[in-house]
Structure formats: C-alpha cells, structure tokens
Amino acid sequence: MQTDIPVEKTPAGRRRKRVRDSIIAAAEKVFAREGESGLSIRRLAEEIDYSPSAIYKYFESKEELIDQLKEAFFERLMDRVDTSSNADRPFEDRARACLITYVETATNRPYHYAAAFSSIEQKDECTPAAPKNWDEFMTTNKGKAFSVLVNMVEEGQALGMFDRALEPVHAAKSLWASLHGLAQLVIHVPHFERLIPDDGSATTTDFITFHANLLIRGLQAQPASVAKDIKTG
Amino acid sequence: MQTDIPVEKTPAGRRRKRVRDSIIAAAEKVFAREGESGLSIRRLAEEIDYSPSAIYKYFESKEELIDQLKEAFFERLMDRVDTSSNADRPFEDRARACLITYVETATNRPYHYAAAFSSIEQKDECTPAAPKNWDEFMTTNKGKAFSVLVNMVEEGQALGMFDRALEPVHAAKSLWASLHGLAQLVIHVPHFERLIPDDGSATTTDFITFHANLLIRGLQAQPASVAKDIKTG
DNA sequence: GTAGTTTAGTGAACAGTGTTCACTTTTCGA
DNA sequence: TCGAAAAGTGAACACTGTTCACTAAACTAC
C-alpha cells in the first residue's frame, strides 16, 4: 500500500496508476456537477465498477481523494492567473486581467472553489497538515497563487502606479480577500450579479470588472493627505 | 404540528415554546463550538434528554433548525453593523467602524458565518426559498445588512467624500464582497493574519483595519483621469 | 516452474447519520 | 368524563465512511 509518489514504471505500477486515475476522473465528474455531498464512496465505486472497499487501496480516505481534486483545481487556478499576469500587455491591463481571471476561474468551478475553503481552522494542533509558517505556505498551490498577487503589487509599485507606502504582502492579502469574497458571493448568493434594484442587465463579468477596477483604484498612488492614513503593519 | 409563528399565550403554547427554545439553545451551544458536522440530531436529543424523533415535532428538518441559527446570527450581525454605522462620530470613522464590525462579528462566530454561505446556488428552480428579486432579498437579514452598506456609500457620496460616479449599489456589492472575503479567509485559512514573510506580530484587528482603509480609499473621489475607468453598469 | 510473499479486490459488518411511522402517553377543551 | 389533539417514543429504513478477515491474482526468488 503506497498511495504517494513512488516509481511507477513497471507494468503493475502503470496499471495501478490507470485505476487510480480512473477513480479521480470519476470523482471529478461527479464532484464538478454535485459537489462534496453528491460524491459518496459507494456511488464512486459503482461508477468505476469496483467495490467500495477497493477505493481504500488507492486512497486513505475520502478526504484525501477530495484534497487531490482541490489541489488540482488550485494548480489550474494558479496557472491561469499566472498566465494572464504575464501576457504581453500594459501593466494595468495585465493587473486587471489577473484579478478577473481569478474570480472567473473560481466561479466556473463553484464546487471546487467552495470546497477548497470549506475546512475550518482548529485552534488546537489537531491538524498538523496546515502550513504554519510563511515558507511552508508558499509551497502550496494556494501560496503560489498568492505570490502572483504579491509580485503584481510590487511591479505596480516599481512602476510608480501603486502606492509605495503599502506593504506589498499586506496589499496582496487585501486583494486576495476581495477577490475571494466576490467569488464566494457569486457562488453562494443566488443571482448575486442580478441583485440590482432596477433589475439591470449587468452580467457577472461586468461586475467582476467593476470590482477589479475599484480594487486597483485603492492601490493607486494617492495625495499625501489620504495615503498617510494607511498603516502598513 | 405548527412550527411557525402562531399565538403562544396558552400554557401549552408557552411550554411548547420553552422546549423549542431549549432545542435551539442546545443546538447553538454545540454549533458554535463544533459547527454543522458536530451537530447531530441524536446528540442534540441526548443533550436535552429527549428522543431524536421528538425534535421533529418542533422542526421539520435539521436544515430548518440550522437555518434558524444562521438567521439569528445574521440578525445580530446586521444589528451590530447598523449600530456602529449610526454612532455619533465623523463619517469616515463610522464608515471604517462599520466595515471592521462586519468582519469582526463574522470571525467571532466562524461556524455561523461559514455556514451562512455554505449552500450553493442551483441553476434549476429546485430551491424556491431563494430570494430571486431585489425586493425579496431586501427583506432578508442578509439584505438588511447589505442595505447598511448602500446607505453608507450614499452618505459618503453626499458628503463629497466618495466618488459620485460610482453606482451606490454596485459599490456596496463590491464592499460586501471584500468584507466577506476577508472574513472567510480569516476563518478558513489557518493563521491568515500571521501570513507574513518576516513573521511580523500584526494582529487580526490590525489587518482588518488596513483592509478597511484600503477599501475606503478605493471609493474616494479621484482625479478625472482615473475615475473615468470605472464603469457603473 | 514452483514456492512464498506481496498486492488487488471483495463482501460483510460496524458505527454513525437524517428521517419516518406506528404506537403510547399525556394534555386540554367541550 | 369523554374524545380529540398534541407530545413523546422506539424501532426501523436507507444512507454514509470505514475496517477487516478473506480470497484471487500477480510478482519475486530460487
């Protein structure tokens, strides 16, 4: 029983990988459509024509399986955000695109994104897997996605477009929170984008753009009288 | 079986209310400490010394019970945000306090706040309870909390402190998203406030204040060259 | 090629969940 | 006091994740 990453070059190893992948594929299919509550081990087993207990030869628990889905999703998210922040365009366009990509990728796979933030921090030390310090966090896909934001802030500051008084990591955390929040509201609040008194026909994309513009505005260099209000830590 | 709001002036009615409240109290106690996963009907029944099926004489389902907890929490949230936005202080202080109160109240009851946004919108019409239009939403406690934000934006615009080019409801939605996101990250990302490369000693409150300041900055009146970027819908 | 040891896969079972339903007991109004 | 309505119960149903003894296949070493 070796569910991690050892050599898989022997025929048996390939066969094992094939089965494992088929489990993940089936799980992905169900999960994307119905989320965590729709995905049961027994249903999964039925879908791939194995017995429920067989799955436990490939994954230690349901949680580990779902963690794989979440990590894979975050890798994708990180990749897309990174790509759009490296495009060959003026900085402000790239910055905006980067923010918009984050929210759109998240909302396109609502169950994945929602599940990725569904566990709650326990104040005790019962979850040893949680990255405690900065370096550990930065090896996570979440951490990598976050570092894209930090780089973006720093580049904006270097260009003189963003306020240099802002601590880049703080500003990036603030940005992350704002993006995350919009994604969550779009996912969890029914018809969030249509929540307008006169029932305007604004699309989700329109509002995401509006939000991104507002965030960028907050980061921009300000008259001294305003900027001095911001404490950097 | 009448689980809603009829007259409760008769002795039997009072007794019924007492039992119902004791169920809610027990549920609240467990839920605040362990969240939805720790709260089972059987455990709840044990705690109040009734049989599990007795609970179904008072609540139609576990979901209805939890919905009550969530609504009560949101009423409290709304109340606190409203209070801090009506204090006798300069506008900017009130605005900041209002934003900070939202996040702090949310993070003080992590399971309540997380649970309040845990259901996912179904594109079909399977959830008839979801408020579809603006007016219906505004009768919700969520809606009322939201309207506090709208009022705040409008007051800031009237005072000339916030950019009048911003559509108030859009700006409020953007604000809500940013606050919601910070609350969620603090709740769901372990040690979010301590996520600093040099392990600075910034507290959660410090960061919430930083975030609020940044948001207010984004709303403030801008030079025309910047403000024209914002589309209002 | 055969013996022995891993590995793959299974079915039954355990402990738990929300929920229902026939049933008894209590309460209360006429 | 009688009868109806409500309160409360225990057993059962259909699920869930997970474990474990067990068999069947596959690989390693002689």
TrEMBL record, chains A, B:
Source organism: Hyphomonas pacifica
InterPro entries the UniProt entry points to: Homeodomain-like_sf, HTH-type_TetR-like_transc_reg, HTH_TetR, MT1864/Rv1816-like_C, Tet_transcr_reg_TetR-rel_C_sf
Gene3D superfamilies, A to Z: Tetracycline Repressor, domain 2
Pfam families on file: TetR_C_33, TetR_N
Organism taxonomic ancestry: Bacteria, Pseudomonadati, Pseudomonadota, Alphaproteobacteria, Hyphomonadales
One Gene Ontology MF term: DNA-binding transcription factor activity
UniProt name for this protein: Uncharacterized protein
